[in-house]
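Q: How do we represent a protein-ligand complex in a form that can be generated token by token?
A: Start from the inputs.
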Amino acid sequence: MRRLPIFFVIDVSESMAGNLPDVDKCLQMILGELNSDPYALETAFISTIVFAGRAEVLNGLQEVYTLSVPKLPLGGGTDYGEAFSCLMREIDRNVVKSSRDQKGDWKPLIFFFTDGNPTSTSYKSVFRKWNSSYAKNANVIGISLAAKLDYSILGMVTEQLFLIDSVDQETIRGLAKWVSVSIKTTSVAIGDGKNFSDSDAIPGDNETVHRINLKKDNAGGENNVISGNDVKVIIGKCSKTRRRYIQLFAREDGSYREKGCYVMPDEEMYDKLTSVDNSGDTIDTALITGDMSSCPHCQNPVILTHCSCGRVFCSDPERAERVFGGIKLTCPWCGSEGCYGGGNFGVGTGLG
Ligand SMILES: [Zn+2]
Ligand SMILES: [Zn+2]
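Then emit the structure tokens for the protein with zinc ion bound:
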């Protein structure tokens, strides 16, 4: 039987931290839909690839009914080049090509989800390779979870780019439906042996998913570019559990406001998915305004305690041991004990 290979290629860069549960749910719903569709059950095989600064295969091509959605990790960076290199390797390795003796798999459907522009330019050469050797035999559908994306970049590898404007329950449900319909339509067309053209497979836009007219919206790509500085990420460590957290900041009129602080889902995977040259974000703490979360691990009230090693951790100034001139804390990153000024605590006041 000829299989319909489907690849979900999912951006799990840090800025996705707040949206991960929704994306997880979206994948669950897609699988649920496909599991109730006889055509999809028969033909669809799904692989999940995640990428940040690097890419990892969470599961190779697998029949729908045997697949349970893996928990999504996070990583640092957004490297489209790594994502597509990994995708090409997986296609080479797992998609059966047609030959004189056998009919191979159907053209793979690739759903590429991203919420940000690439932080590396490696995509340029990788996209060239994709276009010269793979593009003819695959169907890429780009789905942007961020309004301010440079469409011209994904426009190099797909004409089918869709935008969802917000990530909330309602939208996620709509997106899951839309993706399932794309897959079902393709499976049905294949099952019926109809003369089937790719463009039939992908439904047009609806309330949730908006097709981007690349020819028109592409003009003046600069306008669509989110400046790299709009979202800043700080990785902190809980001083009680020694586990890491991810704090996100959004730029607002020259200052930064916290968008949330989240438990890092899988630290080992985070390190695998983060590129070595990910220089890490620095943020001028004097520019931070507004309230901040407490530690997502232990609820300590301060999460931006600075150590002279350059890292931040959580603390509770009220409960810390008092010493002359401040309080005594131990940095969970470097292990050094230091005296911290108690006054304007937490933001850049560490004396190490
Ligand atoms: Zn903590
Ligand atoms: Zn330290």
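Confidence is low (pLDDT under 50) at residues 218-228, 343-352. The longest strand covers residues 55-63.
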